[in-house]
Every structure is written in C-alpha cells, then in structure tokens.
Write a structure and sequence with these properties.
Layout (H helix, E strand, L loop, with lengths): L41 H19 L8 E2 L6 E2 L3 E2 L3 E3 L5 H15 L2 H16 L10 E3 L3 H12 L15 E2 L4 H15 L3 H17 L9 E2 L17 E2 L4 H16 L4 H14 L12 E2 L16 E2 H18 L3 H4 L1 H10 L13 E2 L1 E2 L6 E7 L7 E5 L12 E2 L3 H12 L3 H4 L4 H4 L28 H7 L8 E6 L30 E11 H18 L1
Antiparallel strand pairs: 1-2, 1-17, 2-3, 4-5, 6-7, 8-9, 10-12, 11-15, 12-13, 13-14, 16-17
Length: about 550
C-alpha cells in the first residue's frame, strides 16, 4: 500500500516497554566524538540525557503530557489513534510511562529537571482524573465538547478499534493506562515534595477498592454510566476482565500501595482478587478461562472480534498467576487444578501442519465442542463491515492473532517443581508478609519487552550509538512505521472495490491505525523512553 500522507509509530509500553527500530543516525555537536562502540563516560551520558529530555519537555509536551508519535513539524500526532493538539495519551507509552522514565532518571542523576518533568506529567494526568477516580485512554484539555466531537468523528470510524467508537465517560482499566498512572502517583507521593500526591494515591486506592466486585474481579470500565450496545452485542465493559492485564495490574498496584501506605483494607482485596481466578476456571475437560467472565463467572464475549470462547493465552496467563499466588500464600488450592488447565491446553494443540512460527495453539476455542474458532470480517468500514467467527482457519483477520505460542512444557516443569516444595518454604519471602511498609523500587523502567501489535522494530543500540544518534534538534529520529487515515467523513454503506478481509485497515474512511510501506521520520515517545532507559543503565554502570 502506497501512501501520500505521514506515518505515526504506535507502540505500547508499561514496565514492559516497546522497542524501537532503525534510528537514523544524526550527530549532535556535543556527541560527535562518540562514533564507535567505546562506552561513553558518565558526563557524556548525562549531557545526552539532558538534551533529549529538555527537547521533550520544551517542544513536545502538552500541559506536561504526551501522546505516542509526532511529525517533526507537529502537524500531526498520534496516540493509539490520531490525536488533536489539545490531547495527551494515558495508554502506554504515553504520559504515565514518560513520568516513570523521568522518575527513573531523577533517581539515577539527582537532576531536578527530571523531577519537574515527572511532576508536570503527573499534574497533567490528575487534571484528567475522572470524578469517581481512574482515567480514560486519553485526556482532551479542550474539554467535553472537543472530546465528544473526536469520538463522533475519529473514534466512531475506527473500524477495528471498538473501544474508541463510543464515549462511556468513565475510567478504564484496559491497556494498563490507569494502573500505570496510579503507580506513578505512588512514586510521586513517596518523593514527599507535594502532599497533593499523597492525597491522590489514597484516592487511587479508594477507586480500585470501590470498583472491585464482591467476588474479587474488576470490570474493564467503571462506574457504568453510558452503556453501549454495539452491533447487537451487549456492553462488555462491566464483565470481570482479565484481558490486557486488568486484574494483574490492579493486584500489582495494591501490593505497591500497601508497601507505601499500609492501608489495612488492601490485603483482603488482594485475597479476593486471587480467589476470583479460582472461581472462574471452567469445569474439566475444558478447564480453561475466557478473557472476560460474567459476574456469575461464566465466559463472555467482548468486542465483536472476541467471540464467546475460552482462550488459550488467557489460560496460560492464569496458570502463571496461580503459581505466583501460591508463592505468595503457600495455599495449595492455587495449584490444585493447574494440571487440568495444562491438560486442556494440550488437548487443543493444533496439528503440526497448521503450526506457523511456533504458534501451536488457537486463540479461541469453542465451548462444548473444543474446536478452534477463527475470526473473519467482511465489508470495508464500520458502517458496512462485520466481524464473525467460524471453524475456517483461512483468511482470518490480520490485526488480532488467531493463534498463540505457548511453552506448555515449561509451564508443566514449573508447576512440578513448585508443587514439590513445602508450602511454608514457598511463602517465606512473600510480598504480602514483607510489604507492610517499605520503600518502592527506585527504577520501574528496567526490563524491556515488546507489547504492541504495531511494533515492528528491534532495539540493540549501544550507549555510544545512542549518544551519537541524537540529532542536532535534541531527539532521536524514528521511522514512524504506522499511520491512520485522517477523518474524512463517515463510511459508505456500500464497500468499494478491494479485499479488506485480512488488512489492518479498511477503506479510506477507516481511521484505524495501520502499517504502511514507507515510514517517514518523526518523534516517538517510545524511542525516547527506550533509549533513555538504556542510557540510565549505562550511567549506573559508568558511575
């Protein structure tokens, strides 16, 4: 596909951070000597970090916040969808991710520039906090009318981005934006420079506790305000949600909050969250989980390309979670049904001739028949298009993986080793015991892994290469590998010529992001975060 308009890089990141690719080298005057693999000294690393950060703060930020990608002239910008100049993105690698990076840099250098940048990012997020707590995917500083117009145009016409087709006007736990923001607030509260952050941290705890169901689960969005019936499908946002780390991120936040605040309501909430993982496991022989469940624990559908089914990757995630819960508690109930789950996964393994790139398990498995389900679409846009599922593995949708790579033997081995240990020995170092009070970790951005379906890049730059490739303007030029059609009006009722069954985007009215042939060079928060994280590591070694 040949394009005549700019591209945007779209990546996701949290404590797991998306990597970047092909940074076009451009030498800044301050770093002209760093053209080889010789490790730069601490002063050079510090100077590079400061130059790059000053550019982001002075030239890129909006009220202290950020989206994901920008053209160098700032004529277009993107979060997960195209954004307005008045918008910042909460989803990683947006504003909260930047705040975490700034705090890491502050701890590494002691330079107040980074603390001020972290505070500005946090303040921007607090301006967009929902009345009941939590955050939406983005914040529009131009207010509700501007937000409504964006949803009625760009959001409404993003065919595959159904979470943006309607403004629920509440907070979402999806895509870890709220969770990452709350963790940033904890870090700012711990810094103890502004009492507002301690108040905000306590509000965040109240929000997570208030939104938790009695059985321990959390909805995707809360509180219910504007339910949405999409193409005849029920509003899924109130279901118990495991997809996109909703439960895991809330548990992680509560553990950190307990360490910092010592709120005695928290251990009971964590215990209930653990229990819902047991309650939602389905009976043998299909002893797996779905990505979301009804409040009475039955599997449920979500977006129209997420059918009612059990899901293999979610089941593998639950097995890992249950083993983690056992390590925290020594309670063998968390291990009891893991063999059933592993046996079910084995039962749906694809035949060898259907395995590609190590992806040996279907994403969706029909309840009852145990047959793989595959998702397809017809049409060309949100008006005339439709998603559906059947048993045919051909011509599946290209934007959502229909098969998964799961190391089943590794899970079995880990379970076997864990089950052989004495429960008292296992829970000896439990975070639930040691977390009564204590400092948070200083660095949150260590450990880099790909988390975006649009990230086609690979990292690996040495510190010397990172120093050398910062351009004269103060940013790392990045090939922006994804773009979107700007809003041009609602889609037509009749599809144009073309085959959109497996493409990421439909016709020209579809505002969903997609990958194009020829990237342009731009500014990426993901690149900045990844490169700064590497430089922080290098600085800690150099000093």
């Amino acid at each position: 596909m040949t394009l005549d308009f700019p591209l945007a890089r779209l990546v996701l990141a949290s404590a797991l951070l998306a990597s970047t690719t092909g940074i076009f080298a451009a030498t800044s005057p301050a770093t002209a000597s760093a053209q080889n693999d010789t490790a730069p000294d601490a002063a050079t690393i510090r100077a590079t970090m400061k130059t790059a950060t000053q550019f982001m703060v002075d030239k890129v930020s909006t009220h202290g916040g950020y989206v994901w990608s920008y053209l160098p002239d700032f004529s277009r910008r993107w979060g997960e969808l195209e954004a307005r100049p008045s918008m910042i993105w909460v989803q990683p690698p947006g504003t909260a991710t930047m705040g975490h990076l700034f705090m890491d840099a502050w701890h590494a250098t002691g330079d107040d520039l980074y603390y001020r940048a972290a505070a500005a990012a946090t303040d921007a997020l607090l301006r967009g906090e929902k009345p009941k707590g939590g955050w939406n995917y983005f914040i529009d500083f131009d207010g509700p009318e501007s937000t409504a117009e964006w949803y009625a145009t760009t959001g409404k016409n993003a065919w595959r981005m159904e979470e943006f087709q309607h403004d629920w006007d509440n907070a979402t736990f999806d895509d870890v934006g709220t969770g990452e923001t709350m963790q940033l607030i904890l870090r700012m509260a711990e810094a103890d420079r502004d009492p507002r952050y301690l108040d905000a941290a306590r509000r965040s705890v109240d929000f997570v506790l208030a939104s938790q169901y009695d059985n321990g689960g959390w909805p995707q969005r809360w509180p219910v305000q504007k339910p949405f019936n999409h193409h005849g499908h029920a509003d899924y946002t109130g279901y118990i949600t495991f997809n996109d780390e909703v439960a895991r991120k809330n548990i992680e936040f509560l553990q950190l909050a307990y360490r910092l605040l010592g709120d005695e309501r928290i251990p009971g909430s964590i215990a209930r969250a653990m229990q819902v993982h047991l309650a939602t496991q389905q009976p043998a022989p299909q002893a797996g989980w779905a990505m979301q469940h009804t409040l009475d624990t039955r599997p449920a559908a979500a977006r129209t390309y997420e059918p009612l089914a059990l899901t293999t990757h979610t089941t593998a995630d639950h097995v890992r979670a249950l083993m983690a819960f056992y390590r925290e508690t020594g309670d063998r109930r968390f291990l009891a049904r893991i063999p059933e789950a592993l046996d079910w996964l084995e039962s749906v393994r694809l035949p060898a001739d259907q395995v590609k790139n190590g992806r040996a398990f279907p994403t969706y498995v029909e309840i009852g028949s145990n047959r793989p389900l595959y998702v397809h679409r017809r049409g060309s846009n949100v008006v005339n298009g439709e998603y559906y599922s059947d048993y045919d593995p051909g011509n599946v949708i290209g934007h959502y993986g229909q098969t998964r790579a799961i190391n089943l033997q590794k899970l079995r081995d880990e379970y076997t080793a864990l089950a052989a240990l004495d429960p008292a020995q296992v829970k000896r170092d439990s975070a639930l015991k040691s977390a009564a009070r204590g400092p948070l970790q200083r660095y949150f951005m260590q450990g880099i892994g790909e988390v975006s379906d649009l990230n086609l890049s690979a990292n690996g730059k040495t510190p010397a290469e990172l120093v050398a490739s910062l351009n004269a303007d103060g940013y790392w030029p990045t090939p922006l590998v994804a773009t979107s059609h700007p809003y041009r009006g609602d889609g037509a009722a009749t599809p144009p010529a073309g085959d959109f069954r497996t493409t990421r985007v439909g016709d020209d009215s579809d505002t969903s992001p997609f990958i194009a042939d020829t990237p342009v060079i731009g500014i990426s928060t993901g690149t900045y975060i990844e490169h700064m994280s590497r430089l922080i590591e290098a600085l800690r070694v150099a000093e």
